[in-house]
Each structure stands twice: as structure tokens, then as C-alpha cells.
Amino acid sequence: MKRLSRTQVDAYRRDGFLFPLPMLGAAERDEKLAALARYEAWLGGPLSKAERQWFTMPYLFLPWFDALVRDQRILDVVEDLIGPDILVWTSTFWIKEPGSPTFAAWHQDCAYFGLEPPEIATVWLALTDASSLAGCMNVIPWQGRPRLYRHGARRHADSINRGGQSVLEPLDEAKAVAMALPAGSFSLHHGLCLHRSAPNRAAHRRIGLGFNYMPTQVRSIGSVRLSAMLVRGQDRFGHFDLIEPPARELDETGLRRHAEAYARYGENYREQIARHEAEFRTA
After folding, report:
1. How far is CA 49 from CA 20, 160, 198, 266, in A?
2. Which of 21, 67, 117, 256 is the most buried (most CB within 10 A)?
């Protein structure tokens, strides 16, 4: 193992999540927040008000975001959980403005990904404090063998998730754990880990960055050929079109690659919503 202890690995296998893991110091956080402000200036307003495409897969056109995705302090932890050959598939800015009603209902990341096996390890890096007051993630530890729950794409107006997905089965919410993160630390959760988040009632922006990692043997079960980026090891399977990292911030090549990858991602997501609903109707 590179960074985690056996106790930490066992806890992740038992519960489906692990937190908090320290990473960024104050100077590094300030640097990333300044880069975010620069990006928002290019957008012409807060990222939380922008079109969804601009907070999805930013590692394709923002070198500073790409550097975080590839940071050895994160990859050493991820390798301890999924092995040495690692792809990053999608990544997201998760920003809640102070006092905003934005929330996430109980859901599992893998519900509409269409990836098999569902061995996704999601890193959630806090650039500002993600307390319970600020709407941090809540998670429910696995009880027995993890499984996929039935979801509905409710498309709630204030949902932070793409499909507004929510679990339609009864859950034991009494077992929920608030996964609060101090600024500069990160958490991990498995793609089948049940989680949600409440609105931000704090006086500051809750700014988080999500990175979805998977071992290279994971494949897409949909009809759309998807893209991913190799961030460690080798890809011996070729299940995804591999994308190069960005050379310069917001350059034409990076934006073009992003537009193509995002279009494929969206097409697959819509296909997987329909597939999920059809499977549970006939189950």
C-alpha cells in the first residue's frame, strides 16, 4: 500500500466511504480558488449559474484542474483501493452558493453511468469548508453486500445532479453519517455508496471538486463509445478513447476535446436512464 493503512482500506471495503484525508495547505487552496475565479471571469459569472457543460470534465481544458486529478497525493490513495492502472472518467465542480436551495437526493453515482463492473472510486476535494451547515455529503454505510438500488430521474429544479436522480426504495436514514470535510481535505466513496447533500445554510460558498476514477478493466455497457484519461499505469484493455491532457488554459484544442467528450457523456447518460428504468420495470 502506498498511503492508506490496512485499517483504512478495510473501512472503505466495509462501509463504502473514507474520510477525511488531508491534502492542500492554505497557499495551495488560495491558488486553486484564484484559478477558479479566473475561470468564472472567462465564463462571465458564477460557475453555479453556468450551463452544465462548464462544470463537467473541466480537466480537459483547465491544466490546474488536470494537475489536481493527477496529484500523487490522491492517486496513491486511489491505487490502494482500485489498483495501479487508473483512468479518470468524469470530474465535476460541486458548488453551492450561500443560502442556495441546491441539494442532492439519496442516490448512487453508478446508477446512470453504465459501467461494469461498477468499481468507481470518487474523490471529493473541498476547497472551502464542507460542514453539515454548508451542505456536506451524508452517506449510509453498506449493510451486507453492496447493490444497485432503484432510482428515478426526478429532474428536481434545485438538484445539483444531472438527472435529479433519487433512490425510490426505503432506506435506513438513521445510519447516515455526515461526511464533513475541512477545506483542503478530501473524501472517497464507492460508486455504489448511497449519499446525499442538503442545501448550503452557511455564509460561504461550498466549493468541492469531484474526480471519478476507475481501473482500466471497467467497460461501458452502452452503445456510445466513451472517452477517459489515463492518469496512472497502463491501459491494456482499450475500452475507452484516451484523451490527452490540456496544453494551455481554455485553448481551442482543449475546448474541442471537451465538447466531444461531454456530448458522448450526455448521450450515454440519457441512454442509461432509460436502461435503468426498463430493467427495474421488468425485475
Report:
1. 29, 11, 18, 19
2. 21
Cα separation, 268 vs 148, in Å, equals 18
Question: DSSP readout, the chain?
Answer: --S--HHHHHHHHHHSEEEEEE---HHHHHHHHHHHHHHHHHHTS-GGGS-GGGGBSGGGT-HHHHHHHT-HHHHHHHHHHH-S-EEEEEEEEEEE-TT---BEEEE-GGGGT-EES---EEEEEESS-B-TTTT-EEEE---SS--PPPEEE---TTBSSTT-EEE-S---GGG-EEE-B-TTEEEEEETT-EEEE----SSS-EEEEEEEEEETT-EE-SSSPPEEEEEES--SS--SEE-PPPSSTT-HHHHHHHHHHHHHHHHHHHHHHHHHHHHHHH-
- Cα dihedral sign, 132-181-87-192: negative
Phi/psi at 10 (5° precision): -65, -40
Q: Are 230 and 214 in contact (CB under 8 A)?
A: no
Owner of C-alpha cell 464507492 = 190
141: Cα within 13 Å, side-chain hemisphere: 13
**Identity of the residue numbered 32:** K
Q: Pairing mode, if any, of strands 177-179 and 137-140?
A: antiparallel
* Domains of the chain, earliest start first: 6-282 (2.60.120.620)
| 189, 120 contact by CB (below 8 A) | no
pLDDT in tens, 164-223: 678 888 999 999 999 999 999 999 999 999 999 999 999 999 999 999 999 999 999 999
Identity at 129, one-letter amino acid code: D
Whole-structure pTM value: 0.95
